[in-house]
Write a structure and sequence with these properties.
The structure holds 2 protein chains of 2 kinds.
Chain A lengths: L3 E10 L2 E11 L4 E5 L6 H9 L6 E6 L2 E2 L10 E4 L11 H11 L4 H14 L15 H13 L5 E5 L7 H18 L2 E6 L2 H7 L2 E6 L2 E6 L1 H6 L4 H6 L6 E4 L1 H5 L4 E4 L4 E4 L5 E10 L3 E7 L7 E6 L9 E6 L5 E3 L8
Parallel strand pairs in A: 3-8, 3-9, 6-7, 7-8
Antiparallel strand pairs in A: 1-2, 1-4, 4-5, 9-10, 11-12, 12-18, 13-17, 14-15, 14-17, 15-16
Chain B lengths: L3 H32 L2 E2 L9 E2 L3 H8 L1 H32 L6 H9 L6 H12 L6 H8 L7 H4 L1 H26 L3 H9 L4 H28 L4 H6 L11 H11 L3 H26 L6
Helix pairs in contact in B: 1-13, 2-13, 3-8, 3-10, 5-8, 8-10, 9-10, 10-13, 12-13
The chains are: A alpha+beta, B mainly alpha.
């Protein structure tokens, strides 16, 4: 079981309030991703849950029990660090066995758990090696192995993929998602990469300056961002946010339209502009349209075969039902 | 580019330095070796004659020799034990964030800058003196009989003096090692359920292994040849209670004026030092790999 409840949790470093009172409930078995720009307090929040930082106020409950003052080891949580934090002088087997040894677990049971974790993570052939002899992805798997042998109530991941190269990152992302499917254990995952958040999460928590901006499923956040910050943060390439005349025409202070919700035409449309850079990805082409009078650049997604050149004049029409309207305070208008 | 030609040129160019260094080492060694086979007494100049292995025989069968060996080992072992254990603990303390950290660190390092004769004299006259020493005052304050450290526990006193000099060195090296320890590892161990002691023995100490090796190797080299501290405090006495191998060689050559036996002792000391070095490298040198 791993239901984690944060009740008015606050964190101050001296005078600075990093996390103002914050409420959040993480259901058992959920894959929750904390996402936000760097310095938004997402790692601090994870460390508060882990118990590596003391909360300045409020209460953390794990499975209904107050865990605010419980030391990290007794919370039944396992953490995977960004730097992996493997013990360099121990073999992979000993690294994975370490939490079990610390719990004085019986040797046969230790071996059984290590073997099964190694099998799940494809580490069986590497058990006798030292971390220094492993590649980045393998080290990452050892770190996960060290977490899963404890059979924790929840896993905490602190930007676990940011030290890996791009190809490996995609692979590990899938492995972690699959692991979650198999173990059905609560996972809390911190990242600044909204692609990781979108692809892995059951529930995304978008944080800014210690505040929760929005909580919801990836598609909820994508389809109906609650405010301008979430609108601009979720989605790649980012949503076009337009102010002024065009927004007033739709009765809003700011309107947002995603690149794929703009219809492109050479003849006519609501707005017009000149094609600048086009990014050809093969399946899609992202066109940067300038001189629309709306914003510096409006990004448009077109099909991969589009035949437009630098300097061509194009017309854009937003799909009316996909338009996001925001008021002067940045909040979404109904 | 390392062509045949440039390599030959390089050899020619480094040769003066190499020849100088070789001469610097080989000539004294050769002369010591030569003297060690001579009957060479400073009180009877001009009577030098070849005596074969006699000098070695006299040196090795001298009862002072075996006690000097034991004393040397106790001295080296005692100082190593105090400085490495104490150094680890001091480094652990100094690694904690605290007020006035910079000044405290400099203060801890400073004994290393005091030259051996001076620090030994300071200990002898200001701490261990049975009449005016600080320790004597302390003993009297508690109503105890002051201890004459240098004559009652001569070897122990010298171990303390030398350890006091070398503790800063060990602390400095081990402190830098502590500072290079990844904090994430400690936090991971904490999450894994390791208490403070487990974290120390399972994470910190293995991390320090290499630094401890360096400390032990370097200190052993210097501690085998401790001399000044003994000369200015106990003069090797009482009897031979605090005579180590270096001091015995000095006593033979310059107190008994028997340069031949002294030289033989010097050669014996070189051989023993090399044996110790080989053992040390075998035992802990593997820590330096990888």
């Amino acid at each position: 079981m791993g239901r984690i409840t944060l009740d008015k949790v606050t964190k101050r470093f001296g005078e600075v309030e990093v996390i103002p009172p914050l409420d959040l409930t993480i259901e058992d078995g959920e894959f929750v991703v904390f996402v936000g720009p760097s310095g938004c307090g997402k790692s601090t929040l994870l460390r508060l849950i882990a118990g590596l930082e003391d909360v300045s106020g409020g209460e953390i409950r794990i499975d209904g029990r107050d865990a605010t003052e419980v030391p990290p080891a007794k919370r039944g949580l396992a953490m995977v660090f960004q730097s992996y934090a493997l013990y360099p002088h121990m073999s992979v087997r000993k690294n994975i066995a370490f939490p079990l040894r610390m719990a004085n677990m019986d040797k046969a049971e230790q071996d059984r758990r290590i073997e099964s974790a190694a099998k799940v993570l494809n580490l069986t052939d590497y058990l006798e090696r030292r971390p220094g002899q492993l590649s980045g992805g393998q080290r990452q798997r050892v770190a996960i192995g060290r977490a899963i042998v404890r059979e924790p109530a929840a896993f905490l991941f602190d930007e676990p993929l940011s030290n890996l190269d791009a190809a490996l990152r995609v692979g590990m992302r899938l492995e972690i998602s699959e692991l979650h499917e198999r173990l059905k254990t609560t996972m809390i995952y911190v990242t600044h990469d909204q692609v990781e958040a979108m692809t892995m999460a059951d529930k995304i928590v978008v944080l800014r300056a210690g505040n929760i901006e929005q909580v919801g499923s990836p598609l909820d956040l994508y389809r109906s961002p609650r405010n301008l910050f979430v609108a601009g943060f979720i989605g790649s390439p980012t949503m076009n946010l337009l102010e002024g005349r065009a927004a007033q025409a739709h009765g809003a202070h700011t309107i947002g339209i995603r690149p794929e919700h703009l219809d492109l035409s050479r003849e006519s449309g609501e707005w017009s502009g000149v094609v600048g850079v086009s990014e050809h990805l093969g399946s899609d082409t992202f066109l940067h349209v300038h001189d629309t009078g709306l914003a510096d650049i409006v990004t448009v997604r077109a099909s991969g075969e589009v035949e437009l050149r630098h300097g061509d004049r194009v017309f854009l029409t937003p799909q009316a039902d996909k338009l996001h309207r925001f008021g002067e305070n940045g909040l979404r208008l109904a | 580019m390392a062509t045949q030609h440039s390599r030959a040129a390089a050899r020619v160019m480094i040769s003066p330095a190499v020849i100088l260094l070789l001469g610097w080492m080989l000539i004294p060694l050769g002369m010591t070796l030569y003297f060690s086979f001579l009957r060479y007494n400073l009180l009877m100049p001009g009577t030098e004659s070849f005596t074969g292995w006699d000098n070695y025989y006299y040196f090795l069968t001298d009862p002072a020799f075996s006690s000097a060996i034991v004393n040397t080992l106790i001295l080296v072992g005692g100082v190593l034990a105090i400085t490495t254990i104490g150094g680890v603990l001091f480094a652990l303390l100094l690694d904690q964030p605290m007020f006035g950290q910079g000044i405290v660190r400099i203060l801890v390092i400073s004994p290393f800058f005091v030259m051996p004769t001076v620090s030994a004299l300071v200990w002898k006259n200001m701490f261990m003196n049975p009449v005016s020493g600080l320790l004597a005052s302390l003993w009297r304050f508690f109503g105890a009989q002051p201890v004459d450290w240098l004559s009652e526990y001569p070897l122990f006193s010298i171990v303390v003096i030398v350890a006091w000099q070398w503790l800063p060195f060990a602390t400095l090296i081990l402190l830098t090692a502590f500072q290079s320890l990844d904090q994430d590892q400690l936090e991971a161990a904490e999450m894994d359920g390791a208490g403070a002691l487990s974290r120390f023995f399972h994470i910190m100490l293995p991390h320090l292994a290499r630094a401890i090796t360096v400390v032990v190797l370097i200190q052993t080299i210097f501690l085998l040849s401790i001399f000044a501290e003994i000369l200015v405090t106990t003069n090797g006495g009482p009897g031979t209670a605090s005579t180590n191998l270096t001091y015995l060689v000095y006593a033979e050559s310059l107190l008994r004026f028997d340069v031949g036996t002294g030289s033989a002792g010097g050669i014996v000391a070189v051989i023993l030092a090399n044996i110790v070095a080989i053992f040390l490298m075998r035992m802990i040198g593997k820590n330096l790999d990888a």
